[in-house]
């Protein structure tokens, strides 16, 4: 079964690798592709609007969907060549590779496998510019937006904030997983919408107010 199948302009090689510039800045680059057909173009992201607040989540409805994404990741996603090759390229181990306690299957919500976090994988896809819908579906299943969509939105904003508050080296360090799963490269946030950037600006303004203790009765809002 082919994943990452939504077409855009073809790469010249099966894996389009970019070279990071020493200054920490680079031209507009295309995401890495690990299949014959790359993900959708950043100019036309195939995702719903990010206008909805990511923290307004009905936990009772969300958690079963999250577990379904976790199940897909453990039972199917991590065992596909496409997911394995992308994980290797962005230098993050999949659960079945984590010795001495590999996780090959989902054993249910009462088992330790349900406590495995999907957030590091979402973060690594975002910071390397590989969080296309087709890739997220390959990792987490067709219901990924309901299950991990709120986490994805959170982490995209967090990446913007991290980049704004620190330089390239500090930003990269924030996303390294020690001892040997360092982020191999950073890419600008893939295809942000105007709504997403405005939300980030609003949240950043709230944080600046927090730094100045402009909260509660002192809040400018």
Provide a descriptive summary of the structure in words.
The chain has 221 residues and is mainly alpha-helical. The chain has one domain. 41% of the residues lie in helices and 0% in strands. 28% of the residues are buried. About 21% of the residues have low confidence.
Helix % is: 40-55%
Report how far apart the termini are: 52 Å
Query: Number of helical segments?
Result: 7
- Looking at how many chains there are and whether they match, the oligomeric state comes to single chain
User: Largest sheet, if any?
Assistant: none
Order of helices and strands: HHHHHHH
Number of strands: 0
Number of domains: 1
Question: Quick check: average pLDDT?
Answer: 82
Radius of gyration: 18 Å
Shape: globular
Strand residue percentage: under 5%
Which helices and strands appear, and what pairs or packs with what?
Layout: H1 59-75, H2 81-89, H3 119-127, H4 133-140, H5 144-165, H6 168-174, H7 194-211
Helix pairs in contact: 1-5, 3-5
Brief rundown of the structure:
The chain has 221 residues and is an all-alpha fold.
Main attributes of the structure:
single chain; 221 residues; mainly alpha; 7 helices; 41% helix; globular; Ilp is an apoptosis inhibitor; Verrucosidin_biosynth-assoc
């Amino acid at each position: 079964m082919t994943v990452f199948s939504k077409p855009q302009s073809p790469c010249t090689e099966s894996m389009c690798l970019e070279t990071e510039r020493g200054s920490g800045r680079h031209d507009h680059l295309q995401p890495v592709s690990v299949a014959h057909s790359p993900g959708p173009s950043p100019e036309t992201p195939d995702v719903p609007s990010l206008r909805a607040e990511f923290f307004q989540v009905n936990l009772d409805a969300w958690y079963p969907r999250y577990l379904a994404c976790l199940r897909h990741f453990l039972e199917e996603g991590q065992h596909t060549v496409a997911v394995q090759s992308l994980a290797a390229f962005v230098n993050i181990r999949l659960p079945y590779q984590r010795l001495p306690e590999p996780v090959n299957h989902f054993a249910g919500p009462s088992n330790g496998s349900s406590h495995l976090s999907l957030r590091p994988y979402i973060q690594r896809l975002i910071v390397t510019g590989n969080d296309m819908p087709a890739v997220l579906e390959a990792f987490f299943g067709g219901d990924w937006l309901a299950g991990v969509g709120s986490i994805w939105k959170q982490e995209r904003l967090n990446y913007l904030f991290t980049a704004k508050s620190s330089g390239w080296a500090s930003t990269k360090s924030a996303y390294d997983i020690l001892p040997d799963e360092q982020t191999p490269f950073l890419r600008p946030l893939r295809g942000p919408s105007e709504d997403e950037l405005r939300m980030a600006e609003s949240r950043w303004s709230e944080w600046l107010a927090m730094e100045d203790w402009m909260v509660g009765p002192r809040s400018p809002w």
